[in-house]
C-alpha cells in the first residue's frame, strides 16, 4: 500500500508512475493499494489509461477504484485527475482470482475493496481507503474534504 498522492500520473509526465512500476517489479508485488491516486475514476477512459500504463508490469490487470462523485460534475468529468480516491491493482494470476469488488456507496470516494478466491474456496479481501481531513498543504476547494462537504451539502449524488 502506498499513499501515491500526486505520483499516480495517467497523463503527461509519467516519471512517478514509472517509479511505482519499477518498484512493483523489483519487489515482485502483485497486489497494490494506491491511497489518494488523484485520478478521476468517474471518467471511464481514465481506467483504460491506467491499465495501459501498468501493462508494463503485467499483461493481466484487474482494477478496482473509486473517487468522489464530484468527478461526474461537468467541471471535472474530462479531467484525468481528481484529488483523493482509492484504487487496488491486481496483477498476474491474481487478477484471474478476483471474484468481487465493492466501492464506497456514499459517493464520497472513501474506499474500494477487491475479494480474491483461493484454494478450498477461501476468500481474501483487500481494502484500500482514504479519509479526508480539513488541513494540510493541499487544503482548498479541490481537496477531498471540500468535495465531500459539497456532496453532503447538496444532499444527492451528482450522477
Description:
The chain is of the alpha+beta class and about 160 residues long. Helix content is about 20%, strand content about 25%. It has one domain (about 1-155). The protein contains three helices and seven strands. A four-stranded mixed beta sheet has the order 1-2-4-3, covered by helices on one side. A three-stranded antiparallel beta sheet has the order 5-6-7, with no helix packed on it. Strand 6 and strand 7 form a beta hairpin. The longest helix is centred in the first third of the chain and has 13 residues, at about 15-25.
User: Span between N and C termini?
Assistant: 30 Å
Derived structural class:
alpha+beta
Radius of gyration: 16 Å
How much helix, percentage-wise, in residues?
A: 10-25%
**Helix-strand string:** EHEHEEEEEH
List the uncertain runs. none
Number of strands: 7
Question: What's this, in brief?
Answer:
With 159 residues, this protein is α+β, with helices and mostly antiparallel strands.
For this entry, give a set of tags.
single chain; 159 residues; alpha+beta; 4-stranded mixed sheet; 3-stranded antiparallel sheet; 3 helices; 22% helix; globular
List the helices and strands and how they pair.
Layout: E1 2-3, H1 15-27, E2 31-35, H2 44-54, E3 61-66, E4 86-91, E5 98-103, E6 111-117, E7 123-129, H3 144-154
Parallel strand pairs: 1-2
Antiparallel strand pairs: 2-4, 3-4, 5-6, 6-7
Amino acid at each position: 500500500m502506498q499513499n501515491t498522492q500526486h505520483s499516480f500520473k495517467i497523463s503527461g509526465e509519467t516519471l512517478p508512475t514509472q517509479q511505482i512500476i519499477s518498484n512493483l517489479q523489483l519487489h515482485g508485488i502483485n497486489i497494490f493499494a494506491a491511497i489518494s491516486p488523484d485520478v478521476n475514476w468517474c471518467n471511464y477512459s481514465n481506467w483504460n489509461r491506467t491499465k495501459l500504463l501498468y501493462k508494463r508490469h503485467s499483461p493481466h490487470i484487474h482494477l478496482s477504484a473509486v473517487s468522489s462523485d464530484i468527478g461526474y460534475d461537468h467541471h471535472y468529468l474530462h479531467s484525468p485527475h481528481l484529488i483523493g480516491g482509492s484504487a487496488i491493482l491486481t496483477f498476474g494470476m491474481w487478477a484471474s482470482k478476483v471474484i468481487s469488488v465493492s466501492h464506497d456507496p456514499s459517493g464520497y470516494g472513501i474506499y474500494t475493496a477487491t475479494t480474491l478466491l483461493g484454494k478450498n474456496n477461501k476468500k481474501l479481501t483487500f481494502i484500500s481507503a482514504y479519509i479526508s481531513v480539513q488541513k494540510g498543504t493541499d487544503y482548498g476547494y479541490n481537496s477531498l474534504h471540500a468535495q465531500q462537504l459539497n456532496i453532503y451539502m447538496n444532499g444527492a449524488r451528482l450522477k
